[in-house]
Design a protein that fits this description.
Layout (H helix, E strand, L loop, with lengths): L1 H8 L2 E3 L9 E7 L3 H15 L3 E3 L8 E6 L4 H20 L4 E6 H6 L2 H6 L4 E3 L7 H9 L4 E3 L22 E5 L1 E2 L10 H5 L3 E2 L2 H13 L4 E5 L7 E2 L13 H6 L1 E2 H11 L4 E5 L8 H9 L6 E3 L7 H6 L6 H14 L4 E8 L6 H14 L3 E6 L7 H5 L6 H24 L5 E9 L6 E5 L5 E5 L8 E9 L3 E9 L4
Parallel strand pairs: 2-3, 2-4, 4-5, 5-6, 6-7, 8-11, 11-14, 15-16, 16-17, 20-22
Antiparallel strand pairs: 1-2, 9-10, 12-13, 18-19, 18-21, 19-20, 21-22
The structure holds S-adenosyl-L-homocysteine and FE3-S4 cluster.
FE3-S4 cluster binds next to helix 7.
Length: about 475
């Protein structure tokens, strides 16, 4: 599991196909969640029209942008180290400009410019369309900052350029921001109010990806189940919505159906689901469409009702179990993963045992596990003392990671002897004679290449496994090809 956590934190310099008329060079790196990676594709699209091609070579960049994450203190430290590195290069190449994008930009605002003097440009997640103006300011010798959050911006009209893509899987963002206010979480402050994107523009993007040969899309949002389109705007603006608006509204189940029907050969995934908002009709739509993958990322954060309440997670342990039971009933082979935080303020040994017993009940396929990190400005920081000692947080984290590993192994073993459909994504990291892809449940599958190609749907018979990977051999193309 540590490996997965590491991967989530990894930065990645990203490149797109070069336009010959462009002469300026952009080095763009992303840290944090999938939404940041997706946003960087929007930024690259905006800047491609401003004469920038992407480069993977920091030394030759005219503009360096880092898309940042504030979710835990460690994520911010990682970005600070990168900023030091950029500034070292800038001393050799003084023409180079450095900009911070995303959640840290939003959280620290002009502090980067005034106190730290380590960047030229600070741009929050809703201000990317202003980048051309901001870059002009910087080029004229002024520092530039725009961290205004928007209630409407969804970038629905921007066609993202795909950065370092395998040409097979792509992210499509469907909502921005979050209204949930989990007490530990900085996202509502850095990404602003929740808003949904026009379903028509979502389907157009998916159709365009299909036409370019993509085979799998992941619909992205902080809380996809609260997707709601009434013709635009914030949900609260429509408290008195007319019956017509209500009748024509699209919720997440409706959107899933719309997308699945538009591209029946495309695999559809989505992330992230919040247990309090996930409804039966979403599970029913998943069960009814074979191209919607049987996989749900369903963060629980804690197994203790007392802690869930303090986290402002608006469901109980029992309600979570009911949801899991419904998923298992309607989609018996559904892959389920989680996020869990250990050491939230006041967490006792008993609360921790509740988390372990919840994990025993669900037997998740995999998960992302974190020690609580107090974030400035959050409700938890203002109201609760960060009182669980670091070594206890770490010990509890180790216990849940170990238990998850046991469950992962147990779940992957269940596939031995079975044949699963795999979409080939890339060469296996460990062997250039093997392909790597995922089954519908999102478990990685590796198998000998033979004559198959990236982007093929292949039936693979599973012969062996580790806790995280299935190992098998292809037995032919799947009928989805
Ligand atoms: N709904 C979002 C959640 C983003 S944060 C999504 O799309 O996934 C991802 C995970 O980071 C959360 O589910 C939570 O488990 C963890 N996290 C958030 N704030 C944290 C904090 N202050 N300390 C430790 N982990 C945190
Ligand atoms: Fe954060 Fe909770 Fe939203 S974890 S992103 S406030 S659903």
């Amino acid at each position: 599991m540590e490996k997965i956590i590491d991967e989530k934190k990894q930065g990645n310099s990203l490149v797109m196909e070069a336009k010959s008329e462009n002469s300026r060079k952009l080095f763009i790196e992303s840290y944090g969640c999938q939404m940041n990676f997706s946003d960087s594709e929007i930024v690259a699209s905006i800047l491609s029209k401003e004469g920038f091609n992407t480069t993977q070579n920091l030394e030759e960049a005219d503009l360096v942008l880092v898309n940042t994450c504030s979710i835990r203190e460690k994520a911010e430290q990682t970005v600070r180290k990168r900023l030091e590195k950029y500034n070292a290069v800038k001393r050799i190449n003084p023409g180079m400009k450095v900009g911070v994008l995303g959640c840290m930009a939003e959280r620290l605002k002009s502090k980067f410019l005034e106190e730290e003097k380590i960047v030229d440009l600070v741009v929050g997640p809703d201000a990317y369309k202003d980048l051309p103006n901001l870059i002009n300011e910087v080029e004229e010798g002024r520092n530039a900052v725009n961290v205004i959050l928007s209630k409407e911006e969804t970038y629905g009209d921007i066609s993202p350029v795909r950065l370092q893509s395998n040409g097979v899987s792509a992210f499509v963002s469907i909502t921005r921001g979050c209204d949930n206010m989990c007490t530990f979480c900085v996202v509502p402050f850095t990404r602003g109010r929740e808003r949904s994107r026009d379903p028509q523009s979502i389907v157009e993007e998916v159709n365009d990806l299909a036409a370019k040969g993509y085979k799998e899309i992941t619909l992205l949002g902080q809380n996809v189940d609260s997707y709601l389109w009434y013709g635009g705007g914030l949900k609260k603006d429509f408290k008195n919505a007319s019956e017509i608006q209500k009748a024509t509204a699209t919720n997440f189940a409706g959107l899933l159906k719309f997308v699945a029907e538009a591209q029946p050969k495309m695999r559809i995934r989505f992330s992230t689901s919040n247990p309090q908002d996930m409804t039966l009709d979403v599970i029913e739509v998943m069960a009814n469409y074979r191209n919607i993958c049987n996989y749900i990322h369903l963060p629980v954060q804690s197994g203790s009702d007392r802690i869930l309440k303090k986290m402002n997670r608006l469901h109980t342990r029992e309600e979570y179990f009911t949801l899991i039971d419904n998923i298992r009933k309607l989609i018996p082979d559904c892959g389920i993963s989680h996020d869990i935080i250990t050491g939230f303020p006041t967490e006792t040994e008993e609360d921790h045992q509740d988390t372990l017993s919840l994990m025993e009940y669900v037997k998740y396929d995999f998960g992302f596990m974190f020690a609580y990190s107090e974030r400035p400005g959050t409700m938890a920081e203002r109201k609760f003392e960060d009182d669980v000692p670091e070594e206890i947080k770490k010990r509890r984290l180790t216990e849940i990671v170990n238990l998850q590993q046991e469950h992962s192994r147990h779940n992957t073993q269940k596939f031995i002897g079975k044949t699963v459909e795999v979409l080939i994504e890339k060469e296996s990291k460990k062997s250039d004679a093997h392909w790597s892809g995922r089954n519908s449940q999102n478990t990685v599958v590796v198998f000998p290449k033979e004559n198959y190609q990236v982007g093929d749907f292949v039936n693979v018979k599973i012969n062996d496994c580790t806790s995280a990977t299935l190992i098998g051999e292809a037995v032919g193309y799947s009928k989805n090809n």
